[in-house]
Specification:
This protein is mainly α and 87 residues long. Helix content is 63%, strand content 0%.
Length: 87
């Protein structure tokens, strides 16, 4: 499950025909997508901390938080366009 799929919340999305993951999250940089995938995992999986992600990427916890925030803002801005494309 991708971040974009979680954001869409399954509204108007058929389980047999899910949207292409990269098509939904195209405007995100690779780093933004990686941070969101590690922070927001499917239920049941343990989410990673900003500290852990930062250590593995060689970044500070604050920088990871900034990347996460910027990526979430992008997805919220794109949500209407994503839903229009799917519905």
């Amino acid at each position: 499950m991708t971040v974009a799929n979680v954001l869409m919340g399954g509204i108007g999305v058929s389980k047999q025909d899910p949207p292409e993951p990269r098509a939904c999250s195209g405007p995100l940089t690779d780093r933004e997508e990686l941070v969101l995938q590690r922070r927001y995992k499917p239920s049941g999986e343990k989410r990673e901390t900003l500290e852990n992600i930062g250590q593995s990427l060689g970044l500070s916890r604050e920088r990871v938080r900034q990347i996460e925030c910027r990526a979430l803002k992008k997805l919220v801005t794109l949500r209407p366009a994503i839903l229009d494309a799917v519905v």
